[in-house]
Amino acid sequence: xxxxxxxxxxxxEIVLLAGTLLIFALDVLKVRRIEITGGIAVAATLAGxxxxxxxxxxxxxxxxxxxxxxxxDALPAAGAAPLYAVTSLGLxxxxxxxxxxxxVALGSTSRPSDERGASIFFGLLLLATLGMLLxxxxxxxxxxxxxxxxxxxxxxxxxxxxxxxxxxxxAAMKFFIIGALSTVLSFFGASLLFGAYGTTNxxxxxxxxxxxGYPTLVLLGYGFLFAGLAFKVTLVxxxxxxxxxxDGAPHDVSAFLxxxxxxxxxxxxxxxxxxxxxAVDAVGQSGYGLFGGSLALGPSFQxxxxxxxxxxxxxxxxxxxxxxxxxxxxxxxxxxxxxxxxIGITIGSAPALGGATLQVLAHALMKTGAFLVVSAVAAxxxxxxxxxxxxxGTRRPLLGAAFALMLLSLAGVPLTxxxxxxxxxxxxxxRAQGWFLWLAVAGLLNSAISVFYYARVLKAxxxxxxxxxxxxxxxxxxxxxxxxxxxxxxxxxxxxxxxALIAGLIVLFGIDPQLVLGPIQAAAYHFVAAxx
Amino acid sequence: MLPLISIVLATLAxxxxxxxxxxxxxxxxxLGTSALFLAEVGLLFAGFTGWPGxxxxxxxxxxxxxxxxxxxxxxxxxxxxxxxxxxxxxFVLLTAILQxxxxxxxxxxxxxxxxYFGLVMLTCLGCVGVFVALDILLFFLFWELxxxxxxxxxxxxxxxxxxxxxxxxxxxxxxxSIVMLVGLLALVFYSGxxxxxxxxxxxxxRGLAPVVQTFLxxxxxFGFAVKFPIVPFHTWLPDAxxxxxTGGSVLxxxxxxxxxxxxxxxxxxEVLPSGLHSVQPLLFLIAFLSIxxxxxxxLAQRDLKRLVAYSSINHxxxxxxxxxxxxxxxxxxxVLLMFAHGVVSGLLFMASxxxxxxxxxxxxxxxxxxxxxxxxxxxxxxxxxxxxxxLPALIGFPAEFTAFLATWNGLGYWVLIPLSVLVVTAAFYLxxxxxxxxxxxxxxxxxxxxxxxxxxxxxxxxxxxxxxxGVLPSLLVNVIVNSxxxxxxxx
Amino acid sequence: MVLGVLIAFGEMLSPGTYTNVQITWLHxxxxxxxxxxxxxxxxxxxxxxxxxxxxxxxxxxxxxxxLYSIGYMHSDRGLPRYYAEMSLFLAAMTGLVLANNLLEFFLFWELxxxxxxxxxxxxxxxxxxxxAAKEAFLVTRIGDVLFLLGIFLYFSTYAxxxxxxxxxxxxxxxxxxxxxxxxxxxxxxxxxxxxxxxILGGAAGKSAQFPLHVWLPDAMEGPTTVSALIHAATMVAAxxxxxxxxxxxxxxxxxxxxxxxxxxxxxxxxxxxxxxxxPDIKRVIAYSTISQLGYMVLAIGAGxxxxxxxxxxxxxFFKALLFLAxxxxxxxxxxxxxxxxxxxxxxxxxxxxxxxxxxxxxxxIPPFAGxxxxxxxxxxxxxxxxxxxxxxxxxxxxxxxxxxxxxYIFRAWFLAFSGDGPRDPTLPAAHEGPWVMQVPLVVLSAxxxxxxxxxxxxxxxxxxxxxxxxxxxxPTYPATDLALSSISVALGLGGIGLAWTLWGNGxxxxxxxxxxxxxxxxxxxNRYYFKAGYDAIGLRAVxxxxxxxxxxxxxxxxxxxxxxxxxxxxxxxxxxxIQSGLVSDYAAYVVAGLLALFVLLLIVGPYLLGRFGxx
Amino acid sequence: MTELAxxxxxxxxxxxxxxxxxxxxxxRNFILLLISVEIAMNAAILNFVYFAAFPSGTHGLxxxxxxxxxxxxxxxxxxxxxAIVLALNRLKGTINVAxxxxxxx
Lengths: 532, 491, 615, 105
Hints:
The structure holds 4 protein chains of 4 kinds.
Chain A: H1 3-7, H2 11-28, H3 34-55, H4 88-108, H5 118-137, H6 141-159, H7 166-197, H8 202-208, H9 215-233, H10 240-248, H11 251-274, H12 297-321, H13 326-347, H14 350-379, H15 392-395, H16 397-411, H17 417-432, H18 436-463, H19 471-474, H20 487-490, H21 493-511, H22 514-530
Helix pairs in contact in A: 2-3, 2-5, 3-4, 3-5, 4-5, 4-11, 4-14, 4-21, 4-22, 5-6, 5-11, 6-7, 6-11, 7-9, 7-10, 9-11, 10-11, 10-13, 11-13, 11-14, 12-13, 12-18, 13-14, 13-17, 13-18, 14-16, 14-17, 14-21, 14-22, 16-18, 16-21, 17-18, 17-21
Chain B: H1 4-22, H2 26-46, E1 63-72, E2 77-84, H3 86-105, H4 113-132, H5 136-157, H6 162-190, H7 198-205, H8 210-227, H9 236-243, H10 246-269, H11 273-300, H12 304-325, H13 328-359, H14 375-388, H15 396-411, H16 416-436, H17 453-471, H18 474-480
Antiparallel strand pairs in B: 1-2
Helix pairs in contact in B: 1-2, 1-4, 2-3, 2-4, 3-4, 3-10, 3-13, 3-17, 3-18, 4-5, 4-10, 5-6, 5-10, 6-8, 6-9, 8-10, 8-11, 9-12, 10-12, 10-13, 11-12, 11-16, 12-13, 12-15, 13-14, 13-15, 13-17, 14-16, 14-17
Chain D: H1 3-26, H2 30-52, H3 63-92
């Protein structure tokens, strides 16, 4: 086949790859000004978004569509073992990944322009995103895992890219060790599955279903695989690294880790645990069964997932409850949010997948935004503790309002996307009835508890008197004690724009969810029906 | 015909934004919005069946209904569906009244007026939304929306312990509404309805097995009960009231508590009849407990606001009792009572606010004989107290009379419990007046400027309404009974 | 006033015509459930003989008292408030009299109550006044609650047994000459008995009958004019009026009647005893009011509403007279303590005469007003003694009360007016009030003399009889029993005589400290410790209980909430320690998680699924 | 091959994984940790090698190919790991992970 027909599905990936190479090349050429490298990153991600959205059938950009609609969600010929397959849900996830990357890149352009290693950062950002995009179209286990590793390795380096920040390096170390461990686990699991099926192709694995020589291998294989992927999604008890890493990493990197790479894990779960093994009735009611039959693993896997989901959200909340540091609080909260997403995977029906995907989108926006705000506030010279944010809401009304909006969205307050995503997700859970109802109850109660620590931040920002002297103002004072003043009251154009955009999207999708919910649900139905 | 209700909501939304933006002139924008809102409510009434001057062609039941698809998926349809029947219309009216009264009363608010008035607008928007929503998601959305502005009102403009009170209020009520949400979702999906709008849920719920209905009812009831609030889920109320700024207290007691009652009537009692039937004894028990508890506790309070807060618990207990009776008269009584309590408690909270402004304290024991110093104020307090203890020709009387009549009719001699509590209620109000208004003057002279005109204006409005509807309750009744409930003309 | 009188005369001339206009106040449309026909509550006016009778009392006395006030209150600040509240009261009282159904009756009933609350507390700077006002409101409130429940009972009886089946669409209007509840077939007698008792309770509250009598003496904290109008002539009589109305339109069962007789008879005596020793001129009169109201209640209980009303009519005049006279005394000497006064008749001949006339009327000395009505009451009860043996003791009590009455009122007269000068020299020189205060005295004295004779005016007696038509049958007016009346007159004279011997000519009779009746005197002075008892209930029982509840509320209920909060906090803290920061631990968690997963998959999952079935 | 062989091989790789994980849990020295990871990794690689030899038809990437890829990947991973070691050593003066517990709770 011609190169173009081969390359067509990879248009966004190619763009990103080009961007990465360009940045590294420039780095070699000592061209490291943030305006340039950051510009490239922003442009690449933006272009990627355009391409993906076009492929999703977004009319205004139709001319950019590179994949014939027929190829999307198409089942391969029986016996064929394609390495990749474009599914609409995959495209949705690609869009989400690119969105997160775009915002991070945009926000990061406001860092001191002569910062050391900035260009590396942008290059790695694009590289990691590239890996995520590949995950979203994988249909082969090894392909999937390798793609994940691309991202992982890139993000190890991102965490430590400054090379001078002890916290960053420590974080990278932890990240790396746990990451390596889970890599081992997932590959080991994959190897066992290969043993059981003689193939690593997800389609074939699904086709084979229960007709397999060594069911025990299958059980062990999926078990190890689960452990390996759980690391990415930060499920309890595979979560411990996340908090330290988000905490220690540079703020913008945390934003990307929380908002981006974690979501990749979610989609990997979709592929490995839903796509291949899903049997679905007409209305998309869950008929989830991992090898219903010999070992009756399906329901029991569901149960395990459910237990872990509840565990994850509860532990995450409990740990966030009294957390004093802003970033760690956000980290814990994103762990608990992962628990919500797992609800969708547990149920496995199309509505639930849709809900989970929406939750992924919501979380990508909210967490990226929140961490960007944190990095902006830190740039203003405000400390890392929640109590350092005292009076911020009244001193910097707009910034405060944006942050408040994100927190309220995380807490699931109406007219924000956070509310809609939870609503849809839990609706799906209740609709599935049976013991899934209790998943919904657990999730809702957790979200109720979570309100406490978000409200605590609001309380600090709005009700508590601001400290004197107020660092939040120092940053804005030209020639003040703080760092050199940036435009937009010390935020810088990039950050300001990113934060404003995210806030806008949160409200937009909160008021008219159909915008995103429609495509996502359709994609979910296709995904379930086509089985990746 | 004009989409009046959307216009109302739009008015409030724009008003909110405008107020936030208006800076120091916020109060004018707020006043304008409230006035406009009131006018639109007037229009709503003018075109509503059963209203004296009505000469239209609307059929009774839900009027001014609008439906626009909002979220539509293969497995759930959510509409922007609004409309009013007599009951909701009454509550919309209440909202309009309290909003304008609050705005006028708080005319002198100097601390970040834009934020203050904006939040007041937002609260009212949320309440109106709850009252007119005919779709579960829309209902819940507004329901939750109300929490946020109130949280900020209490937390920023409140008293010394405001932070704790704000958090407590927010989380307590939020947990409750979460449970309620489970109930609502289960209501939809267990009844097999795919659409969230009232009509289809109402129809589908008929098919539910009694036991399921019971559980759903309990879940919903918990959500509403905390808002009511009923004993033992009431402890957020005194704290919230004591700490909230006067305007906040007024809206809190006048509107937020009503959300619970309204929700119970609209989404539980109406939709889950056999559920109600099976938990009726429990409801009666809780109601009696609340009535008794609230009244007796008021007797023990030293802080004027706390006293009024507990008296609210007592009154809402009567409301719950009336609703639980599941008779048309009971329903009528419940709505009347809620309206009455909205106006009266608003008045009383304004009064206690003024007392605080004038004397720097609300501690009844350390006040005394304030009548010579502030005759107008003490008149307001007396009016509020007497209305609240059910004096005829004031709004409380027709409500309580019908309520107790219905109780007698439904429960026979059990009515003695609420009736005898009436004496206690009278006792604590009279005692409060005796200690605070009469006797030798204590607690220093009133504030030099005396009662500001806007405060007396705000209270005066409410007093006037108390008398008007007390003398002519049929003005309300004729509207209320035009609802598609209990085989009333609306059906 | 003029209007009132005209209506009354109209009634006299054309008996049996009733004006009845009404508007719907609250209408519940028919709906399935307990109210199949829906129901409506109306507000209307019913002018019938008895209401017109009351109207005369209210308007005439009201007018005179207002006139009197001009002089009595002239130096008082807050006059506007005074007149406003008085007018409001008169309006409410008129409304009550003209009410054409129980609900409306109750509505105005409450309104007059609150007016009296305000007027008792007119001097609100005085703590005693404030608390007296509260006491009055609360005690009557108890009665009101009973009354309200009684209304419910009647309503629902009407609902089940009413002529139109279901809830009366006519709003329970008093239907004249239609059958009252009692003979109504199907009416549940027990319910009606209870209802009657509840009504009695309400009446007892308003008319200060035992055991709800405590408030009336304290109500004397208000201005004397208020006492005269509200707490002697009109409002307190509302209770009696209620009983009369009820007996006519609703009817009482024998049990009710017995209870009413008991309350009335006992109160008549009980209150009189307390008046015997009291040093305060107004309070003495107040007690006498209670006891006279007792007489009226007694009559109604005996089934002669018209007689009760007749006494109400006469009593209104002479009691108002007594109060106004006492008022001008207080106005003159500035004290209410009888033992500081004395020899006032030198300076205040008119007042002395007026008081004497009032006293004679009260004591039931012919030909003064009191004689005729009280005599008729005794006669009527006497005529009913056969109905139930228990009538006897109460008849005797009431009868003996005549003696006490005569004694205490003249004791007061002698203490105040006889003798040669005040016992307390510091008192200012007494003098008559201005003409506006004298005219009412004269007019009322005239009434006190002649009002009793009205009964011989054919129109008037017809009015009474017509007014109390019971179930279409005009009642028979009780025949006067000469023997009975002569005895009562003798008793009265005896009382006066005793009073003269003990107190006449400025004598002061002081009971030896050692005297065996001393404890009794103390008991009477302390009003049988009733008030003390009520206060104790309020302050020693209810309030501490409330405090206790408050404690429970704060520390048990709210404590639970805070406890939960703290529990979460502690749990979270403990949990955080797993985040040790040591990467090896994290790795350990991962491995542990892996093992746990296998346990879940292989053991827990299958077990649960086997137990409860899959998803 | 035979069942016996299979169980034997599986036993071997299981042992390797076990050893590797044990090392990861017990070692504090970053280098040793890296080595342990590699040992465990080799178990997976080994699996691919001999599972590819089974008759049950091998679609997609055959085991051997996967093996090669994985070895390469493992090398990169180690490289990254070493980079981090260097950074850690420079900043904290130690490669003992137990000393790097600044981020906690």
